[in-house]
Amino acid sequence: MIIKPSDIENKEIQTIYHPQKGEQGSVIDIDTFSLFYGKSQALFDTTMDVEKGLVTAIIGPSGCGKSTLLKSLNRMNDLIDNISINGKIRFEGKNIFDRDTDVINLRKQMGMVFQKPNPFPMSIADNVTYPLKIDGIRGKNVLAETCERSLKRTALWDEVKDRLNESALRLSGGQQQRLCIARAIAADPEVLLMDEPCSALDPMATIKIEDLINELKGKYTIIIVTHNMQQAARVSNNTAFMYIGRIIEYGKTDIIFTKPKSMKTQDYVTGRFG
Ligand SMILES: Nc1ncnc2c1ncn2[C@@H]1O[C@H](COP(=O)(O)OP(=O)(O)OP(=O)(O)O)[C@@H](O)[C@H]1O
Ligand SMILES: [Mg+2]
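Structure tokens for the assembled complex are given below, as produced in the milestone run.
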């Protein structure tokens, strides 16, 4: 997509809608948050509340800032040079950019799953228990229990229980992605951040991940970036549509897909551009 300067002047793309607050309230509160890579602004006053225990999808054309916003939530962007920010992101009420934030702990509470499965070159069991081991947990029983529980939660246990000591790299792509989710939840996070977790997977493996997201809903707050409209519609409760660094519209998924308020959202969800 080519971004024209006239688009940025377009009033419509500056409109922001908020969902009604759920009964459980919000766990993440993005408050007029902007981000610059050097001089180039990638996020413009993004504002949204993420409801606890629900699945929130972030959709929008390539380059609109979805990954940038997702990586801001657990401060993964800190690892990139030359970034500056404005505004706040509150996690459980506290601004994550406060000086006293424990960034390692923040990342533990917000597990991340990437586009391409990234198991470590070690056994299946060691992959799952990795977050515990780096925390210094050595008890064999605790590690074995966490391994089993996490693999059961990601519906992988039956497929791998007899080969826990084999290399994780021998698993199929879909199994590797479920293993990465098992590793993320072994650390007992509050939030799971998923950046296009199915884009490298075939349709069957994709369905398994979507089933898993539905299973995990409620236990974790899940934020998923996806290019797949059907996927967003199938798995999420709320959807944010982003365009050129802005959140154009945010609300209940069925409304965003059936009765969006913004013409831009409508054009995107009906496939007029992308
Ligand atoms: N490390 C970086 N340094 C400089 N600019 C960057 C960096 N990462 C992303 N950008 C720019 O920020 C903007 C948003 O990128 P981002 O990766 O967040 O988009 P996206 O919506 O996730 O796109 P896609 O759907 O293709 O993954 C783009 O213009 C991109 O070129
Ligand atoms: Mg991206």
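The radius of gyration is 19 Å. The chain has one domain: 5-269. Further analysis is deferred to the final report.
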